[in-house]
Amino acid sequence: MPRAPAPKPTEIRPEGFQIWRDAPAGRHPLMKVFPGIDKLPIAKRQEPTAKGRAELYGNTCVEIVEDDMWMYIAPWKIPALARARGWNPVVTPDVDCIVIGQGHLKESPELTVFMDIYHEICHLQQRHRGMELFASGESYVKRITELEAYRFVVDEARSLGVDDDFLRDYLHVEWITEKEFRELLASMDVPPAPRTPRVAAGVSSPR
């Protein structure tokens, strides 16, 4: 029997992953916006114990905002880098909260949202371990916190059959330079896009 073609990455739907796409702006429990997020195999890899998962996912909220943005962890206080960059983040003192753009939640491919939310939950775990999420003076693609979170979701995506084209697109975030992008690809073991050979004028490329 012929093998079925592999699904396109944007058609890959992580089994059991659910999103409340029409969640209104405002604050909600994480598990209301993402029902069953603590029950998936990736959640058990992220936090092996049932007690730990109950605390990690159960004590986290989501703040949905109308801004055109992806996701970030709400800092407990305004970080120095926010002042330097003119960033005005949602601040939630002593509360674990993930801020999500409403358009991203509503319209982005399921796989992208899946990778993003578990990426951010990695950051919550890092903060619980005492790591600094908003260190200034260090390149985004050199931060241990970012490399660890990206590695976790890239490995998960690969296990689902996601191809390099999708991963390159996912990792090509707008706030890094092309040089930093290449560095991030190398750190994640994702090859750069193959270069298209130049063809001399009047010469057809082989097919």
How does this model look, in words?
The chain has nine helices and four strands. The chain has 207 residues and is α+β, with helices and mostly antiparallel strands. The longest helix is centred in the middle third of the chain and has 19 residues, at 110-128. The radius of gyration is 19 Å and the shape is globular.
Helical proportion, percent range: 40-55%
Instruction: Give a count of the beta strands, DSSP E runs of length 2 or more.
Output: 4
* Mean pLDDT across every amino acid position: 88
H and E string: EHHHEEHEHHHHH
Quickly count the domains: 1
- Strand fraction equals 5-15%
Indicate the radius of gyration in whole angstroms. Answer: 19 Å
Structural class: alpha+beta
Count of individual helical segments = 9
Note the topology.
Blueprint: E1 26-29, H1 30-33, H2 41-46, H3 50-58, E2 60-65, E3 71-73, H4 80-85, E4 96-101, H5 102-107, H6 110-128, H7 144-159, H8 164-171, H9 178-187
Parallel strand pairs: 2-4
Antiparallel strand pairs: 1-2, 3-4
Helix pairs in contact: 6-7
Structure summarized in a few sentences:
By secondary structure, the protein is α+β, with helices and mostly antiparallel strands.
For this entry, give a set of tags:
globular, 207 residues, four-stranded mixed beta sheet, alpha+beta, disordered N terminus, 41% helix, disordered C terminus, single chain, 9 helices, 4 strands
